[in-house]
Design the sequence.
């Protein structure tokens, strides 16, 4: 039985419950942890919500495990050729049809009230276009190894200052991000040569929207030898090159948005 979101309180109004959610999850050889993550997501979704799974040519049982759910809320998209993380994220966002877009990794576990808590922020703060929560770090045995994966200095910071800080040192984690679907016009397409999709999404939101940092651990963020954030470090030369590419692409996007009448949130 699907649990569904709980009513917050009489003062919060029922509007939050009527907002529909698109969860965008990309997969590639994720069979080891995928069912725990899908179960943790589906337990929070209403019948009008959707879980979009874009599979990037998995060679294990990922696709068959997703198919075994037979759940109409799951929209499985199988790529004919491997796109890579950034372009696969872009494809999943492009498929999202609902107002609030949540990003999800294939190997994490969502806390039972994640969707409710983030929708609560969007409902209470109509000027917020993106919410990023905190999370606990777990290992491949589901054991907690770190209480929080990021430290927030304040719930909301001025966009320009935050954008500069994130170019220098990124704080955004894609698995903890949710944003209003209207922000896709600023975010997409995601350039193939920027360092990370979450960094790109977060900085563009800093430039054109407003971020709310929700200091609550709403995901169990898994770190293991097979994922993208398992502790590998790049050289200083590579980091500098990536930052220069990022700045160039951000300037190009700003020029393109200005040319088609791009405005800051709310649109």
Sequence:
């Amino acid at each position: 039985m699907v649990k569904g979101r709980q009513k917050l309180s009489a003062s919060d109004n029922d509007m939050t419950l009527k907002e529909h959610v698109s969860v965008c999850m990309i997969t590639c050889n994720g069979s080891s942890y995928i069912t725990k993550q899908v179960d943790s997501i589906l337990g929070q979704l209403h019948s009008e919500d959707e879980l979009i799974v874009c599979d990037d040519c998995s060679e294990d049982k990922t696709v068959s495990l997703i198919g075994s759910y037979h759940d109409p809320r799951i929209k499985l998209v199988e790529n004919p050729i491997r796109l890579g993380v950034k372009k696969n994220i872009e494809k999943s966002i492009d498929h999202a049809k609902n107002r609030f877009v949540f990003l999800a990794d294939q190997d994490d576990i969502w806390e039972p009230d994640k969707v409710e808590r983030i929708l609560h922020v969007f409902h209470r703060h109509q000027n917020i276009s993106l919410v990023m929560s905190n999370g606990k770090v777990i290992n491949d045995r589901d054991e907690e190894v770190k209480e929080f994966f990021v430290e927030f200095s304040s719930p909301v910071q001025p966009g320009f200052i935050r954008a500069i800080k994130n170019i220098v040192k990124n704080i955004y984690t894609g698995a903890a991000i949710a944003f209003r679907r209207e922000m896709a016009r600023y975010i997409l397409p995601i350039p193939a040569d920027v360092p990370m999709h979450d960094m790109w999404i977060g900085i563009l939101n800093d430039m054109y929207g407003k971020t709310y940092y929700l200091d609550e651990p709403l995901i169990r963020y898994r770190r293991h030898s097979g994922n993208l954030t398992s502790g590998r470090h790049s050289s200083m030369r590579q980091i500098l090159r990536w930052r220069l590419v990022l700045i160039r692409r951000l300037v190009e996007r700003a020029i393109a948005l200005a040319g088609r009448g791009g405005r800051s949130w709310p649109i």
User: Anything to note?
Assistant: Residues 6-18 have pLDDT under 50 and may be disordered. The first strand starts at residue 21 and ends at 27.
